[in-house]
Amino acid sequence: MKTLLLCCLAISTVLSAQGPPPTAEKSPLSHHFIAPTRIVWTAEKGVQHADSLLKPAPGQATLTNPIPPAVLEAGEGSGAIVLDFGTEISGYLELFTPISEGKTPPKARIRFGESVSETMADIDHKGAQNDHALRDQIVSLPWLGKKMVGPSGFRFVRIDATDPKHPVRLSQVRAVLQIRDVPYLGSFKCDDERINRIWKTGAWTVHLNMQDYLWDGIKRDRLVWLGDMHPEVSVIGAVFGHNEVVPESLDLIRDITPPTQWMNGISSYSMWWIILHEDWYRMHGNLDYLREQKDYLQALLPRLAGFVAEDGRETLDGMRFLDWPTFENKTAVHEGLQAMMVMTMESGARLMKLLDDPQTAKVCEDAVAKLRKHVPEKSGRKSPAALCALAGLRDSAEVATALKDGGPKDLSTFYGYYVIRALGEAGETDAALDLISRYWGGMLDFGATTFWEDFDLAWTENAGRIDEPVPPGKKDLHGDFGAHCYIGFRHSFCHGWAGGPTAFLSHHVLGVEAAAPGFAKVRINPRLGELKWAEGTYPTPKGVIKLRHERQADGSIRSDIELPDGIEQVD
């Protein structure tokens, strides 16, 4: 024993001196443990002591257990349980096992779910899948130990015993949240608690997707999509300020995509890359980082300009895409791409002037002049109409009338961000807040804790909530709807592009706008609509701006503003 102790001490001394291996990389992600909040469902038989899983536990297998372990015994309609962890997370499941008589590893089937009904689904049933992350698998559990399963995006987990000869015994089950542990520097509150919940939910949705890179979804689409990043980056700027996940993600796709190809295979996504760089520079004022993009911009911008016909019509090739609901409508796609080309070329001209390249800036300006000759045919769809208003191709008041028609009808969780922005810029704050409350709030009404890849309020007619088993005679809001790449349970219920209202509320309602790169100057123009008051904080490279706006009896707005040193407020 003495020899063994001396050996352990020697090894410990060597490791302390050496530190981690020279090839080790420190993860930007932290881990937090979450206990289940409730038992949603159990099989009618073969389940004992399920409530033990809701009681405090040490996070360690132990020789004795004062609380009897939960026992799942396999059989027809037996030995299964669904747990709720209270909120959608990205991460893992940990299962702790006690001492048992035999040491043959029992097997358990684990099914992660963003809805309760997804945990009940077999692979290929209503689109249930294991793409990007395994959400359905059978694992062996150790004798007196711990098993980690995942990762995936989930709120609910179903555990089934699968071997009738070897019951599953569990002394503890917990979720492991994997996340960038960064502070919420931005905040928002107003006199409408539903709007407050939406701001927080949008922030949480994007935060969960700030993983190794900035993903679009934590279950499916654990990838970097440039267009999808734009609402996400707008939220990050309003909530977290600078975070390396943004430039690292922008650079990742740049480095794997020659400028002769479209990022993610989609022409508009190369345009979003350009717009994102101007936005990021405006937020943080890092000219050195912008200079790193010069060579790529010098190649990409003239290429884009080559897709402008003499009559001003865009002629982009590749995958022509705005958002999924408009994908098959060629008139709508052209309408939106025309507006995007205007915004991109204008952004490119400004960027190239900053980068001392007047020649490429001139190419962009000439392209804009041609593009403005062509006003595309109206498709009657809200997404491209909003872009046309933001690009100045159509009168904003006229477009706002069309955007208000039908309320939340014809919105998508992605381009809905540009719809509410277009309404805001047209002075229609109340209409924008109404859409936010009814559309994004509609997901909350049915149990959502994050915002979804797509949503249509019509789906909720006679539908059950996502946080309970679907009642007989009700539609399954997760499994029965969706389209394109998100049919049924393949539908992502935590999609970063859906967080746009959070950015809108901070930018538009609190009224914070960078008037010079890096917030050397700020313009504050609150637009409360019918709200009585709104307050919050907004992160900048120079510190956090604090604001409170209150409507006075005469209708005017009184503002109390605290600016960090080094920021000048301008009109």
From TrEMBL:
Residues 1-17 form the signal peptide. InterPro entries: 6-hairpin_glycosidase_sf (IPR008928), 6hp_glycosidase-like_sf (IPR012341), Bac_rhamnosid6H (IPR035396), Bac_rhamnosid_C (IPR035398). Residues 511-566 form the Alpha-L-rhamnosidase C-terminal domain. Keywords: Signal. Pfam families: Bac_rhamnosid6H, Bac_rhamnosid_C. It comes from the Bacteria. Residues 185-373 form the Alpha-L-rhamnosidase six-hairpin glycosidase domain. This is Alpha-L-rhamnosidase. It comes from Haloferula helveola. The lineage of its organism: Bacteria, Pseudomonadati, Verrucomicrobiota, Verrucomicrobiia, Verrucomicrobiales.
